[in-house]
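@channel anyone free to eyeball this complex?
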Amino acid sequence: MSGHLPVVTGLGFITPIGNDRAAVTASLRAGRHGLSAVEFLGNPNLPVKFVGTVKDFSVDSPNCRDWTWPARYELPRETLRGLAPHGVFACCAVMQALEDSGLAGAVADDPRTGLFCASAGSAMLLHHHLAQMHAVGGERGNPMGVVSSISGTLNFNLGAHFRITGAVCGFVSACASSSHALGYACDEIRLGRLDRVIVVGAEEHNADTVLPFMGMRALSRAADPRLASRPFDAERDGFVGAGGAVALIVESADAAAKRGARVLAEVAGWAQSADGHSVAMSHPEGAGLRRAMTAALADAGVTPAEIDYVNAHATSTPVGDRAEITALQAVFSAAGAHPRISSTKGLTGHPLSMSGVMEAAFCALAIADGFIPGNAHLVNPDPACAGLNLPVATVEESPRVVLNNSSGFGGSNVCHVLRRPAG
Amino acid sequence: MSSSSSTPSPLARFPAPVRDAYQNFLALHQPADLHLVIEAVLLDFVPKGKALSVGSSIPAESRLVEDLGFDSLAVAEIVFFFEDLLQVSIPTHEVASLQTVKDLQTFVERKLAGGAQAPVATR
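replying in thread with the prediction:
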């Protein structure tokens, strides 16, 4: 069974805090956020002032011919024609991860390599193509309209571009999506069905993806980025939307060893549990998350006391953070354990479908590079946090076992336990 | 160049000589002008760039799929481009008849002259 232990062998980052591993690590260590001022729809009256943006890419236009991206990434037209803007982020993140893992050129046509993706699709392109279709009474439409816009656009396009012949699938559970993708990828490996899976989470940070959350009253109205995204703070008032792409390559320990791959972290276990409570709001006591954390620890064979660091889902919403705080108290404080806990969304904003795999990747960085990210914008912790260990600054310690939480609409909760590689 | 509608013409991002050639063809109906436009659009949509290069004259008998490397999706894309440009809808059975560059040119000429078969979009 240990030959089938899933291990992380490659990472690719296109995020608000950096477009490669070195930049992301530096931002996490320095507590440097990637939130940019925004004026959605050219409307200065909107209370939403910030979004976590990807730099050095320009993918705002509905016409892919207008897009620009860093020259190091080659994207042929036959791939570009079917992509959503966040598909450009994702292709680049996967190329980076393949290079990082030493697998560039090696995964095409390999039936033991899979691809699991997560995004909500491109609301912007969906809107654009449907408006075009409606304008002509349905008489014609862009042949790439469907594949470039619906949820699944990532797996459709990346599966073809990278010629993936193992399992190719998409996951749709809102902010838990890419955590689901990673969990099921680990299962494919543990079951011996695949040697490796490229796990991708991506999302756009444009008005069509982010602004609808304002109608849900879920977005921060703060005029200062450090006040806008401050998970666990008593004064938090909502999240800051964000976008980008992260790719994480997970392989069986045997497959990694066979090709002499460098291992960043092991995925010791994972689990999920649901709230059964509300379409949009967390269970007030975080009941599903509590069960998911407990089950993930059991799956990994670790006790609460052995967890050195928890990367919380906490998005900076009053209700969501409170649910997670309650669940953390129940799992850890009640067991006399006080792991360091932080939400890196203070720096990145909340990239929706991308957050699970992004934060799992941050956990792998913490293990591989030997640091624990702090809660950069935390000034006055919510009183409910009493007893929780919430460092503000980066902790220069090398965590051995790390827990990553994700929660999504409908009450999905997914947790992974990552561990320093043995030996 | 700029049209009176609020959405940009599909030719908006093409170089000025291409846009000028299109306007000239609408006015004077010289086939060479339309051929320049079609070549530019073909170059823009061809999946594998090695089949065509800028400035090379594409033989009229070149087959879109076998000779120029278009796949059926790219043919559908180029058809949609002309549907959008000409504001017409092209039925599937007509698309199937577009095998060569010459077929495409003849087709576009006919549509611009008000070909009877395709329905014109109404708002």
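from a first look: Residues 253 and 353 of chain A are 27 Å apart (CA to CA).
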